Amino acid sequence: MMVPAPAAASCSVCLTDSPFLTVFLSSGIFALEQVGELNQIQLGSEISLKIRPEFEKFDRMKDSICVHYEARSQVWYFIPYVSDNYFHTVWINDYVNKAWYKRVIPQDITCACVYKNCVLTGDASGRIYREDFGTSFCGEPVEFMWKSPFLCVGAPHHRKTIDEFYFLLDEEHDNDFDFSVYKDYDSSYRDDSERIYPSRPEHLLWGDDSDEYSASCVWGTDDEDVPVWSVNRDVMEKAEISESNYAVQLCVSGSALTKSCAIIGLQYRVIYNDE
Predict the structure, then answer these.
(1) How far apart are the first and last CA of the chain?
(2) Where are the domains of the chain?
(3) 19: cis peptide before it, omega within 30°?
(4) Which of 14, 147, 180, 228 could bond 190 through an S-S bridge, CB–CB 3.0 to 4.6 Å?
(5) What is the pTM of this model?
């Protein structure tokens, strides 16, 4: 297949389901489109607009690698940075949700590929790693953070009080994460910090009595009530968004070995306009 533009590297063209094809150029990452009765290929819209400032920090574009992680509908871009001889930062494009994720890898990565639906990387010392697997790295915690865009939840010029806000969580996975809120387009001040940890006393869960959260989920002695095994289901967990605001930015994070999250969705049940 002929690409109608010079790619940045031989490994920077990726065939996906949506868009049809993506090509990484020195000026950005673009989708290729089929047009006309003959289905001719032409350069389409840029999909890297949200990370455009990063292109000023890239170097040696000819050494870039992109791999299609089909199991998660993602394309991983390994791009060298200025004054860095290895791949320590990976930009991940979720082409279904039209979102970008930044992944920082401490190892000195030199190569990457997809094998049997798994992303594999190799470092300068000859070690091979399986990426995006488990919640730790050789027993060490993997720090994570996700921020939403600023959400108006209604008319942007009205202050609103969100009286009831819930996370919809997947109980097939452990959920234990830190939640905070940034308000009115101020990303420097964090508010409403709390720990989200669903407590289900009626379920038998693996754990210990090291803190008040774990103790409430662990069956005690043998003469306790007969336990009920947990059934996988969606769970609503309430979180606090205080005060009246024009817009809010939600932040989910964790840095401990026990921290993880599996969030299916967000729900705003009661919202009051204050103006």
Answers:
(1) 58
(2) 13-133, 146-273
(3) yes
(4) 180
(5) 0.64
